[in-house]
Amino acid sequence: MMLRVIGIRLLGMATVLLAVSALVFAFGALIPGDLTSVIVGQEGATEEQFEEVRRKLGLDKPLVVQYFFWLTNALQGDFGTSPITGRTVAADLLQQIPVSLELALLTLLVSTLIGLPAGIVAAVHANKRLDILIRTSLLVTFSVPIFVIGILLLLVGSRWAPDLFRVSFTPWAEDPMMHIRSMAMPLLTIAFPITAMTMQMTRGAMLEVLHSHYVVTARAVGVREKRIEYLHALRNALPPIVTFIGFQLGILLGGLIVVEQIFSLPGLGRGMLEAINTRDYPMVSATTLVFATAFVIINALVDMLYPLLDPRQRGR
Amino acid sequence: MTVSPDTQMPGHRLGRPMLLDQLLRHKGGAFGLAIMLLFIFLAAFGRFVAPYDPNANDYVSLLSSPSASHWFGTDELGRDTLSRVIDGSRIAVAVAFLSVSIAMAVGVVIGVVSGYFGGYVDAVLNRSQDVLFAFPTLLLAIILVAVLGPGLFNASLAIAIVYSPRFARMARASALSIKSSEFLDAARLAGVSTPVILIRHILPNVLPPVIVLAALSMSTAQLAYASLSFLGLGVSPPQADWGSMLSKGRDFITIAPWLVIWPTVALVLLMLAFNVLGDAIRDVLDPNHSSIGKNPDTLL
């Protein structure tokens, strides 16, 4: 039964991914200009040279055929060669993905470690001073875009923490200490709003559960308050909180693009923006595809996690 | 909050004066409205209020700190920051209204058609929106701007495309829920044509929740644009624009912090106003809303 549900979900995911890849390809084809003019250059190129390059790249074939070749190559990890850098796109991706992935995972870790307990505390003390303080700061945080948080941190950092300010990105393998220092500000910037969201969601889910009949019953029969809060209630508040990770993920991925740009981190988001600016078509399509695929797959995983956390959902 | 009993009816049509009246009595509503009107005023008449031409270079006072002649200081080309912040409100206000209006119009049409006709049309429209939902919102906006090209209208259009499925879902749900109600059966029996039913009978019932969503979307739309502009995908220089001012000001953050502080203040103030006003409009139009999971998917 369980396997069948998972099978259906996987099939659905594959369909969405196929549609997403088609859209990504279409976007790439719709961006003004084309690869040929980038490679050949504007000056002194004859019509024959253009045709030659177009044939070589397969751009003379119908779009559907181009899409098919692009997708089958992409599935084998071949995204073509960048006309701008001359390197293969896959090689660049292999450099960029670990940077973004590290930042994303660290953010999730930090936001869960801080946001979850803070949300529980806020729910337990609902409408008391502590809760109101937390919620007011949340309202302010939600009103501040990530790049503003980054700018403000830079502003503060330039005055009070010059060690962390303007440290250019250093890979872990090169110098672990410098690596940590170069990641500190970006992590702080992106973890801020994500933690606030985790906290808000946890508070909401906990409040709902804390008012349910079985918690009232547990209280009535004399189960200790702490045990109710952290065992009974939290266990049942988890499914909506986990679902929320799906929402967060979109914000997290968008946040990566912004944060990498602010702090000049050589990640996937910065790679994408650079590619858009230099009209590096294979790179634009590849980075977009990686982002969208990660988004779809993780959302699907969260969906599949749901029945594990909520027994009522099993066997449906 | 005081709400007269008749507004509690779902789908009730609120007269405009009454909505305004209730908003003004709502604590946040009055505040949000006041700030928003201030920015709309600056957007419309900023050219007359601003002390300097926002794009005029002054090579005598480059990066000068705030003073009596330049309240908010000047930038690396000697342009007056106050005048540029005021001029930037034109873009911010325009994008917020433009993108949300387009998203609402497109979303409502798709949603109503989808919900009312159902079947094959509904399935196709739903699946195509699912594909849009499969992209992180900012990523989709970025790639759409790359396709459409930069500029005020194209950026608004990109944001509208990103947001329209939300409006479509909401309109679809409302249309679906009243599709089989008796007054529609009566209208159909009386021989009212389908377009008239859609416009005269379905639309008015679909609008209240959609208006709430539109109000709540204003701040995220403005924020989305600011992010695009910060990433270099907004209006072209030298047009003053808060996002690009921030991105440029970052290079001078140690020597001229006022270049990032004032655009930030303006940006956050307008967003806060949109947020508070959106909450107020929701409180007035939909008093029984749930506070959990409120507006979770912002664009950053």
TrEMBL record, chain A:
Membrane topology: Multi-pass membrane protein
Residues passing through the membrane, by range: 103-126, 138-158, 178-197, 241-263, 283-306
Stored CDD domains: TM_PBP2 (cd06261)
Keyword Transmembrane annotated: yes
Keyword terms, alphabetized: Cell membrane, Membrane, Transmembrane, Transmembrane helix, Transport
Gene Ontology CC entries for this record: plasma membrane
Start and end residues of each ABC transmembrane type-1 domain: 97-302
Biological process according to GO: transmembrane transport
Location of the protein in the cell: Cell membrane
Chief location of this protein within or outside the cell: membrane
Record family assignment: Belongs to the binding-protein-dependent transport system permease family.
UniProt cross-references to PANTHER family, sorted A to Z: DIPEPTIDE TRANSPORT SYSTEM PERMEASE PROTEIN DPPB-RELATED
Protein name: Peptide/nickel transport system permease protein
Originating organism: Aliiruegeria lutimaris
Lineage per the UniProt record: Bacteria, Pseudomonadati, Pseudomonadota, Alphaproteobacteria, Rhodobacterales
UniProtKB/TrEMBL annotation, chain B:
Location, primary (coarse class): membrane
Domain ABC transmembrane type-1 as annotated: residue spans: 89-278
Topology term for the membrane: Multi-pass membrane protein
Chain ranges passing through the membrane: 28-50, 91-118, 138-163, 210-235, 255-277
Keyword Metal-binding among UniProt keywords: no
Top-rank lineage group of the source organism: Bacteria
Record Gene3D superfamilies: MetI-like
GO CC terms, sorted: plasma membrane
GO biological process: peptide transport; protein transport; transmembrane transport
Subcellular location: Cell membrane
Signal peptide residues on this chain, from the entry's feature table: none
Similarity comment: Belongs to the binding-protein-dependent transport system permease family.
Record-linked PANTHER family: D,D-DIPEPTIDE TRANSPORT SYSTEM PERMEASE PROTEIN DDPC-RELATED (PTHR43386:SF1), OLIGOPEPTIDE TRANSPORT SYSTEM PERMEASE PROTEIN APPC (PTHR43386)
InterPro entries registered for this protein in UniProt: BP-dependent_transpt_permease, MetI-like, MetI-like_sf, OppC_N
Family matches, as Pfam families: BPD_transp_1, OppC_N
Keywords: Cell membrane, Membrane, Peptide transport, Protein transport, Transmembrane, Transmembrane helix, Transport
UniProt key word Nucleotidyltransferase: no
Protein name: Peptide/nickel transport system permease protein
Source organism per UniProt: Aliiruegeria lutimaris
